Automatic annotation (TrEMBL):
UniProt xrefs under NCBIfam families: PRK04387.1
HAMAP family: UPF0223 (MF_01041)
Species this chain originates from: Peribacillus glennii
InterPro entries: BH2638-like_sf, UPF0223
Record Gene3D superfamilies: BH2638-like (1.10.220.80)
SUPFAM superfamilies linked to this entry: BH2638-like
Protein family (similarity comment): Belongs to the UPF0223 family.
Protein name: UPF0223 protein D0466_11855
Coiled coil: none
Pfam family name, one: UPF0223
Length: 90
């Protein structure tokens, strides 16, 4: 991994950890698989920290530019799946 996670300096340490946890969940969907419920939990917490659509797009676009992983596509796929399923972008 040769990239940094997008974040704001005014976030608390807990918020930074939770945002990173969401991006790690997106990575996991691309690199192996992740349970939908785990991914959705990470996303819900991410949205508590980044509630606005414009800010969400800004951070997920920054993440995609540096990693090549699309949080948008992962979340789109996850929303189409049943709760007991695993999300995999492979």
């Amino acid at each position: 991994m040769d990239y940094q996670y997008p974040m704001e300096m005014d976030w608390t340490t807990e918020e930074i950890v939770d945002v990173i946890r969401f991006f790690e969940a997106v990575e996991k969907a691309y690199e192996s698989k992740i349970q939908k419920v785990e991914l959705m939990s990470a996303y819900r917490r991410f949205k508590e920290i980044v509630p606005g659509k414009a800010d969400e797009k800004k951070y997920t676009d920054e993440f995609q530019q540096s990693s090549g992983y699309s949080a948008f596509l992962v979340m789109k796929k996850a929303k189409e799946m049943s709760d007991g399923e695993s999300v995999s972008m492979k």
